Amino acid sequence: MLSFYVNGLxxxxxxxxxxxxxxxxxDKANNELLESEVRxxxxxxxxxxxxxxxxxxxxxxQYWNTASEELYGYTAExxxxxxxxxxxxxxxxxxxVKQAIAQMVExxxxxxxxxxxxxxxxxxxxxxxxxxxxxxxxxxxxxxFCIDIDLSDLRKAEEKLRESEEKYRFLTENISDVIWIYxxxxxxxxxxxxxxxxxxxxxxxxAMKEGLSASLTPVSSxxxx
Length: 225
Hints:
Blueprint lengths: L1 H44 L4 E6 L5 E4 L1 H7 L3 H4 L4 H5 L5 H14 L6 E6 L5 E11 L7 E8 L1 H22 L6 E4 L4 E5 L3 H5 L3 H5 L3 H4 L2 H7 L1
Antiparallel strand pairs: 1-2, 1-5, 3-4, 4-5, 6-7
């Protein structure tokens, strides 16, 4: 009788041991997962020039890194808990974006990356390259992330280049001298000003189809060689 009691007690103790060990393993796994999530969030927090916003299936902001504060003008305290649509999506885009988020949640496929004009806290618009991803953590609701790169400097540089090209083109198209650019690597003209028509009787398009030797006098061609 005593032996049966001892054996029964031992079995129960062993069961408790296994149960406690399983709990410890689960706690360890949860702690490791939590540490990994913290590292992930801390890594994104201070990434310069890359704006990251985390939000749930309803579009409620749950994460807002430092670059998002600088780009959109809201602090993390102001942004978290509010609808991402109200924060950065222009009114005319909100219906489409709301539908896109719902589709992303349902399908598990991120919204395709694209260039967008989003909205800052003062209502001004800002060009960004926006991409999206879905983070799935076991035992937790999936979290959606929007990753934006500010294109303002690129757009300004493109505008300055366009203005410079327009000024250069205006200059070359309104002087009597012929201006031409020749690519010696490919042995062809890349630009000839329209004034070539008055000098040679060819349009700039026609003149560009000719080789360099055809554009030079025999003496000049010999010197070029």
